[in-house]
Write a structure and sequence with these properties.
Immunoglobulin-like, 16 helices, disordered N terminus, alpha/beta, 420 residues, eight-stranded mixed sheet, 2 domains, Alkaline Phosphatase, subunit A
Length: 420
């Protein structure tokens, strides 16, 4: 029994060490013109699933100009409009030569990163030189063409080399301008639900990547502004009140800005911005800084020094929401015969996880080990029918587990994260 327990501990050590060296990647999804109250009113099961597992706030705020050009520039660069220079949708006066978008900033530290973007609104690509945004691939898709956007995104998510993926949807904003930015407008709500359905296909494709188990993805979602009547650009709460979502394997489930406080706006003087409140409230410039911190997490001291080095205005949320596994101090050699080909989905899971095998196995055994090395579930020498094995993990607590599978004198260890 001691020998068996030691095997479980060694397997756990191997897996935790591997998880600690997973390559960090970022998926940022922007949904233009989506009011916070409307997002909460809409039926959005895919966005809701990210919220249920991750960190979120329905009380984030736009501190700058409630127009798309300035707002997206703040999200992509991590600085407010007085620095990036974009004050309207013409992009006149932009200073991207001084304040690059976050993929370009990340490449200053890691030149080998591969980035792709799929954008519905042309100015997001056309008004910034490629040298300043850092994308290897820049794809224009029809404005408001949600399905086309998702299809294009799936192409690049299938590329195992991609490290940064940015997707922008414009249908909600276009609908608000045509019929009204309001949670009481059925067309506006329907547009949000349509984008959510497409996001579901994107997230499914992300999880289906053949290298997903060896990657650590940070998923970020945000909007640029809300709206009132059929427009935006002023400083009302309906235009400034937005939302923020972050999810990933090691992102804690946490609601940010529980008090719902408003830090103010650089466009309203006085009172301006309350810097004390700002520390606990997600805002637009936090997107780029959080993404950068995540991508460069393995470089000692990169955050918060990156703030002063690149003159960034935002803050990273990683210290309060990201809890990766601890790197094991001693390397453990892989066990001989660990070559059983298995695919697993979904991961993370709330209850059921499915393993697909390349070949049918007459007898199979599996063990589930928790983070303390304890055996929590086991089944030995049972007959498989077909190529698929379903394991119900619904009774287990949230956390990271190892599934150790044995079949035909071969073994494999799969890491799975449970998030209820």
């Amino acid at each position: 029994m001691k020998k068996l327990h030691l095997l479980f501990v060694l397997l756990l050590a191997m897996s935790v060490s591997a998880m600690a060296t997973q390559k960090r990647k970022v998926l940022f999804i922007g949904i233009d013109g989506t009011r916070s109250d409307a997002l909460q009113s809409a039926n959005t099961p895919n966005i809701d699933a990210l919220i249920a597992h991750g960190a979120y706030s329905y009380d984030a705020w736009c501190l700058g100009i409630t127009v798309s050009g300035p707002s997206w520039s703040s999200m992509f660069t991590g600085v407010w409009y007085p620095k990036h220079g974009v004050t309207d949708n013409s992009y006149s006066g932009s200073q991207f030569d001084k304040y690059h978008e976050y993929p370009a900033l990340a490449k200053q530290y890691k030149p080998g990163l591969y980035a792709a973007e799929v954008m519905e609104w042309p100015p997001l690509i056309d008004n910034i030189a490629n040298i300043y945004d850092g994308y290897n691939v820049r794809i224009h898709v029809p404005d408001g063409g949600t399905t086309t956007t998702g299809t294009a995104a799936l192409t690049y998510l299938a590329d195992t080399n991609v490290d940064i993926m940015t997707i922008y949807y414009d249908k909600v904003d276009l609908t608000g301008h045509s019929s009204g930015f309001s949670p009481l407008n059925p067309a506006y709500i329907s547009a949000i639900e349509s984008v959510d359905a497409n996001i579901g296909t994107v997230i499914a494709a992300l999880h289906a990547r053949p290298t997903y188990a060896y990657e650590d993805w940070l998923i970020l979602l945000m909007t640029d502004h809300g709206g009132i009547l059929t427009g935006h650009g002023a400083n009302t709460d309906q235009e400034r009140h937005i939302w923020f979502i972050a999810d990933g394997t090691y992102i804690a489930h946490k609601q940010l800005n529980l008090a719902g406080t408003d830090p103010g706006s650089y466009r309203i003087t006085p009172p301006g911005v309350d810097t004390t409140i700002l520390k606990s409230v997600p805002v637009q410039t936090d997107i780029a800084v959080t993404a950068l911190h995540f991508l460069l997490y393995d470089i000692p001291g990169i955050y918060p020094s990156i703030i002063t080095t690149d003159s960034l205005d935002g803050k990273s949320w990683l210290d309060s929401i990201y809890f990766p596994p601890t790197i094991m101090p001693t390397a453990v050699q892989p066990l001989a015969g660990t070559n059983l080909a298995v695919k697993m989905y979904p991961n993370p899971t709330t209850n059921l996880v499915t393993l697909w095998f390349e070949h049918s196995n007459t007898n199979i055994s599996y063990s589930v080990i928790n983070a303390m090395g304890a055996l929590v579930k086991q089944e030995n020498n049972f007959q498989m029918s077909g190529l698929k094995l379903n394991i119900d993990l619904g009774s287990l607590s949230d956390g990271t587990y190892i599934i150790h599978v044995e079949a035909d004198n071969k073994t494999v260890d799969k890491k799975v994260v449970i998030k209820h």
